[in-house]
Write the structure tokens for this entry.
Amino acid sequence: MEKKKIEDLYNKKIKLLNQFNKFYYDLSKPKVSDQEYDKLMNEIVLLEKKYKFLKSTNSPSQKVGFKPSKNFKKLPHKVPMLSLSNAFSEEDLKNFEKKIINYLDKKDEFEIFYSAESKIDGISASIIYKNGKFITGLSRGDGKEGEDITENLKTIKDIPDEINSKNFPKEIDIRGEVFIKNSEFKKLSNKFANPRNAASGSLRQKDPNETKKIPLNFIAYTYGYEKGLEVETQHEFLEMLKYWGFKTNHMNKTIKGVKNLMRNYNDIEKQRNELDFDIDGIVYKINDFKLQKRLGNVANAPRWAVAHKFSANSGVSKILNIDIQIGRTGALTPVAKIQPINIGGVLVSNATLHNEEEIIRKDIRIGDTVIVERAGDVIPHVVSIDIKKRKPNSKKFIFPKKCPCGFETIKEYNKVTKKFDAVRRCPDRGFECDRMAKERLKHFVSKEAFNIDGFGKKIVENFWNLNLIRLPQDIFKLDYSKIEALDGWGAQSVANLKYSINLRKTISLEKFIYALGIRHIGLENAKLIAKNIKSSKNFLLLSKKSNFDDLLNIDGIGETQMKSIKDFFLNNTNIKVMNELEKILEIKNAKNQKADGILTNKTFMLTGKLEGMSRAEAKSLIEENSGSIVSNVSKKLNFLIIGDKPTKRKIDSAKEMNIKILTQAEWLKMLNKTA
Ligand code: AMP
């Protein structure tokens, strides 16, 4: 598509999305389903990723979360709403206590009582009462000024509108946490990333009737300013809150000594998954108000309180069930369905159990209390179980020996390690196993394979369930009129899909081979095979051969890969699929590599960014001219090509080894080219 057309398409999509936004946020009357909204948003982001020249300040990718609320008036807090300092370990707590003792100039033996309160991960709010009446409600805002969200807060049942108790202060600003229960959050499907966002979104609706639709809760725990409050400790205050009709946290406790704080922390962390709301730590407040006053505040947090946070990478939960998932290559992966738990801000409800052996080794059972870890991009996994918490009637988990498709599963024998594989697999090599077939289709359309824009995993699932696709060729023979009639699809989105699919009817041989999803044939191996076998015709001819000697000569293709390709070609469905695809697609032959090009017998390595050329392009240019690429600086390397911001270490080692260093221009000159 030419630039102008792409820009027009892009602007049209943004305009449409802004219209949808207006209906959703301002008129509170969504115009389209969430699914359709997400799809449009995704299309815009994909266009931006693909065509870097597209940049609009209107773009939804430039905005985060909710619109800044012009809707609410700002009001100052009479007493600032502060943050809390954090502690992560017993050591931190000891230091916290020590500092307090020093500040108060007490002896080491001085006993401090704390109010230990679970830290609910919600949105804090301040409710101002005058003469027993709820007058104004504010959000925390920047701590000094909050947004006037009185009307929205008034929709929350847990916040009393009027309090008639005699000892209720004449004026008081009661503070607490607004949150949504996990069970309610689940019902909101994919609208929000986590319960906290849902609570925040609901609270900041322009129309309080919208707030009412998402059931919010309120737990009270402190006060800001007051006139006529007659209590001396936080514990008494929490008791009074209950008496006045507020909800307080049932896990609140008064505790002394760091050892006991730790014990309570560990207990609560274990109970955390059984709660119907998210907590992300425990707040310890000095119980005695007189001491609190003496201690005062540091810049933005009280000196008399600390938040003891739970780990951001792990949490304790309970296994509700064990599901067996079948991957593209037939591996049976057990996945624990766990009681949802917030780990580092993400609500985790699935954790992998890796494979059958892992389950046997750790004796993992349904009902077990487990530690789940989620760090970085790694899939959440079960680290260990708490045997003490196991019920006497718990039963060993029996790993299924059959794939849900009906095939008996197998454990392969590895000739090299002389061991059976830890992974149990469905033996299907074709598309007979429904589960594998679906996964293979997902692989087929994925980024590195056919890279069909807008045809993601969800669409594969959806089309599969509707029986629109079973084999890869079905993707190119879709009945678009049927799709247009589906919920969430319209003429425009169908046109886009058709466009993306047709765009991929021309494909390189290596991508084609990779997309077939042959086990052990990843991108690199597919490239090697393509380079040697040259055309899809030759590739298909392999099916007629009794031996694959041609493949054996390829440097990098070993016995494992060979066996896998053989198995693949032994399956008739695979052959039919390839023949069909051959007819539909234009599979480009692999570029001939000159055997005696200018760079014959020369090895290269690249470091830094080249100008006007990607790494991939530079690599193929070298290879087309019979040179080869090596991945580290060694005696085998002849030339190190340096671009912008090269790695210094590589240059230094190259110099040490007397390896010739080339600039991009010098290298291009070798090829008789200019930049
Ligand atoms: P932070 O968000 O890390 O600055 O921590 C302070 C926040 O913890 C407060 O603004 C409240 O939203 C929240 N919080 C939850 N439970 C409590 C509690 N029991 N006492 C004080 N703050 C709490």
